[in-house]
Write a structure and sequence with these properties.
By secondary structure, the protein is mainly β. It has one helix and eight strands. The chain has a five-stranded mixed β-sheet. A three-stranded antiparallel β-sheet has the order 1-3-6, with no helix packed on it. It is rod-shaped.
């Protein structure tokens, strides 16, 4: 007599993505100052993501970085030139977004913002 057991393991497929946006300067002072940004995109899930699209509307960045394997990280650089409105406002809030597609054809998204403040001379002449 023979006794057999069958076991089935079901893998939980989880698509997840993260973006981290960091200004490379702590502040700005005048129109024309350039603020460089570093965007770090990480596949935090356990499946390969495709059509990974990174957008930063303020800087004009719109880049498809293709696919990211689980745990893979991609770093992008972009920059923004300060205008008079930014100086008048005293701060610059910038948001970047990322979207990707899982093997199950589901979309995963993330966003991150960074605020850079103006260092202004308030002295009256």
């Amino acid at each position: 007599m023979s006794d057999k057991d069958n076991a089935v393991a079901i893998a939980l497929r989880k698509g997840a993505i993260k973006i981290d946006k960091q200004a490379q300067v702590p502040s700005y002072t005048a129109t024309g100052d350039v603020i460089p940004y570093e965007l770090t995109v990480t596949n935090t899930g356990n499946v390969t993501l495709t059509d990974v699209e990174v957008r930063d509307p303020l800087t004009g960045l719109d880049q498809n970085i293709g696919q990211l394997a689980p745990g893979q990280v991609q770093t992008l650089s972009t920059s923004y030139t300060v205008d008079q409105t930014d100086v008048d406002n005293g701060l610059l809030n910038n948001t970047a977004n990322v979207a990707a597609t899982t093997p199950a054809n589901l979309q995963v998204v993330a966003k991150d913002s960074d605020v850079v403040t103006a260092t202004l001379n308030q002295a009256l002449i």
